Amino acid sequence: MSFAHGTVHQAGADIQAALTADAGVLALWESLTPLARNEFICWIDDAKREPTRKKRVAWMVDSLREGKRRPCCWAGCVHRDDKAPSKSQQWVISRKGN
């Protein structure tokens, strides 16, 4: 079975397990655009600690059930090379070393 990933990021095993555990949630995931899926994956992958990552995976599943299509309060994926980073993304990139 093929799994729908993002435009830049591939969903990790934990994300795939959470989404495939419920056919309804998986259908919601598949209804997202590749860019929207990419935002969720990047946001989850950006977690520095495993407990945060687990919390974000659970939040993503709940958000999909609630009809949300992107992670809130997220500057966006800084890994895309098809467009220049926005001002907020540039700020995020500049803070990564701190």
* Main sheet: strands, sense, barrel: none
- Principal-axis shape equals globular
Q: H/E element string?
A: HHHHH
Mean pLDDT: 87
Distance between the termini: 41 Å
Roughly how much helix do the residues carry, as a percent range? 55-70%
Low-confidence stretches at least 5 residues in length (pLDDT < 50)? Answer: none
Question: In terms of structural class, how would the helical and strand content be classed?
Answer: mainly alpha
Instruction: Give a count of the beta strands, DSSP E runs of length 2 or more.
Output: 0
Radius of gyration: 13 Å
Strand content: under 5%
Number of helices: 5
Identify the notable features of this structure and list them briefly.
mainly alpha, globular, single chain, 98 residues
General description of the model:
The chain is built from five helices and no strands. By secondary structure, the protein is mostly helical. It has a domain at 13-71. The longest helix is centred in the middle third of the chain and has 16 residues, at 50-65. The model has no long low-confidence stretch (mean pLDDT 87).
